[in-house]
Amino acid sequence: MNKRLSLLLALCLIFSFALVNAASATDITLWTYPVGNWGNAEAVQVLIDKFNEVYPDIHVTVELLDYTNGDDQVNTAIEGGQAPDIIFEGPERLVANWGAKGLMVDLADLWAADYAKEIYPAIESACHNAEGAYYEFPVCMTAHNMAINYDLFKAADALQYIDEENHTWTTDGFINAVKALYDYGQENVGAVYCSGQGGDQGTRALINNLYGGTFTNPEHTAYTADSEENIKALELLQSLEGINFDPSINGGEEIQLFCNETLGMAFCWNVAQEKTHAAAGDVEFEIFPMAFPSNGEPKLQGGIWGFGIFDNGDAARIEAAKTFVKFMTEDNDIYADAVTTSSYWPVRELEGIYAGDDIMTEYGMFMKYMGDYYQVTKGWAQARTEWWNMLQRIGAGGNVADEVKVFVENANAAAAQ
Prior knowledge:
By secondary structure, this protein is an alpha/beta fold. It has helices at 2-24, 41-54, 70-79, 91-99, 108-111, 121-124, 150-155, 171-184, 200-211, 228-239, 251-259, 271-280, 315-329, 332-342, 358-364, 380-395, 400-416; strands at 26-32, 58-64, 86-89, 137-143, 145-149, 190-193, 243-246, 265-269, 287-290, 302-309, 345-346. It has 2 domains: 26-143 and 303-369, D-Maltodextrin-Binding Protein, domain 2 (3-Layer(aba) Sandwich), CATH 3.40.190.10; 145-299 and 378-416, 3-Layer(aba) Sandwich (D-Maltodextrin-Binding Protein, domain 2), CATH 3.40.190.10. The protein contains 17 helices and 11 strands. Strand 1 (26-32), helix 2 and strand 2 (58-64) form a beta-alpha-beta unit. Helix 9 (200-211) packs across helix 10 (228-239) and helix 16 (380-395) runs antiparallel to helix 17 (400-416). It is globular and about 75 Å long.
């Protein structure tokens, strides 16, 4: 009888333990846009497996998104009450879109951790709204730069106008280099591409850096492209022989023209372009990455990517999602894996992350020039359209002051809605 009772008690304990475990398990979903290998199922699973070694009772289901249909998928899920628990993207969507609509969880408690205080200020400021609600916890970043045809610059005796050690140049250096290349016979030195918004971070950075202009105010509440500095920059580009406003191409097409040596420089460039075109073997000259010309420290446009959590009304799932975010970003070793999976750079100091990778080390120097992340300003989608429309009108001979006034009026009208 005692043996039977003991067996029965043991079975009851096992059954109870199984019920407790089943009750404590939490299922969450992670949807990720294709940020480097965060768009690769196998690479993401490696990270999830490490997470489950520590948290076996949090089950993570992954959905890979693309930039063609991803927004539609997310919006459809939101409308159907089936939004993902965690989403991996940037502030334009997490803060300025879904966060502004009240759909996201405020992650202020994660930002209160000591390691979060090490995140670069320019990144931190992009992850919260004007009221201080944090809708993104960042993982990685990049800074978009430009590039020159080093061989052409050498042949045209234009290397004297750049700082090769720091990959920087002044506005006068840029003007003189364009003239040197044009006089050498390079009729198309650079193109202010404007067929659409593709690659528009390059044209914005070029124009803002030349004389120190800004695209928005620091509070990200108004567009300021009609400043004297920006007007002066646009008038310069409009007048420079060798710089052509081209309404027939976008940033991607400009890159192709640079790679086939039709253009002597590219304004739409970053490390991904270097790796892609170098690997393809379709470039027969030395690519030399550069910061945009500036009379002070250059301020580059960048990308920020990280985690947001949708408020699905389930406290257990929200807590599990926060546990996942903290796991991926706190410990330096795991965090380094999360960053390298993105193929970009960390948002806080993390030495040696790309040791032995010459290209990543070279492009890493541009991260210190990351400028204000103003893409969270209201009316952003309309402002991008107004921007390339403005460049087309200026390229067709429009008065710069008049055209930037139209841009600002229309962009600020969109921001006010």
